[in-house]
Amino acid sequence: MSLKDLHHYFSKKNSYSQHGEDMILMSYFNHDYKGFFVDVGAHHPFRFSNTYSFYRRGWRGINIDAKPGVKKLFDRVRPNDINLELGIAGEEGSLTFYMFDEPALNSFSKELSEERNENTRYKIIDTKDVMVRRLSKVLEEHIPTGQNIDFLTVDVEGLDIEVLESNDWERFRPSMVVVEDLDLDLQNLHNSAVYESLFSKGYVLVGKTLASLIFKSNR
């Protein structure tokens, strides 16, 4: 299916997220409000996107993904956003990026990528050393002066906690945060590193989908 055909298919949908995360987020914002988002592990301009439905409503933001060539695609489909081709991690430098035949599974996690390669139908097709930066440094350089972040969404296949811990939460504090957490046990929330990290920063859990947790700042 061509990009044009794929866009035509998705343009008929209200939700572009994989599991409806965008619709849950939308319920927390006034319909006419036009805010600002940050999408780490953005993957694609509209496929499995937590932010495209907001973009169509006039929101703007920063899309970050490490896949080689992804910036060109984002610049074409979402020219009014800030689109960055790099990875986010706990330390600045470079990491090996594992690329799958299903790009939504691309990851910097060697352990998770090898497990998926061995035990699922999805396979690693390439690897590449990619520049990674701390989220706080990227936001420092690209957030417009005086701009609040209405929500942050993080989906980086295995290193989500590193992304969270690389932010400066005093300077860059989103009102809402969406994070992938595939291993969450709702009966034992405090066993989740993602939950503990955001709970300690003053966020409360307000929603969950099949793969994501949704938090709201209580400040």
From TrEMBL:
One of its GO terms (cellular component) is plasma membrane. Residues 39-183 form the Methyltransferase FkbM domain. Keywords: Methyltransferase, Transferase. InterPro entries: EGF_Rcpt_Signaling_Reg (IPR053202), FkbM_mtfrase (IPR006342), SAM-dependent_MTases_sf (IPR029063). The keyword ATP-binding does not apply. One of its GO terms (molecular function) is methyltransferase activity. GO terms for biological process: endoplasmic reticulum to Golgi vesicle-mediated transport; endosomal transport; methylation. PANTHER family: PROTEIN STAR. This is Methyltransferase FkbM family. It comes from Dyadobacter fermentans (strain ATCC 700827 / DSM 18053 / CIP 107007 / KCTC 52180 / NS114). The lineage of its organism: Bacteria, Pseudomonadati, Bacteroidota, Cytophagia, Cytophagales.
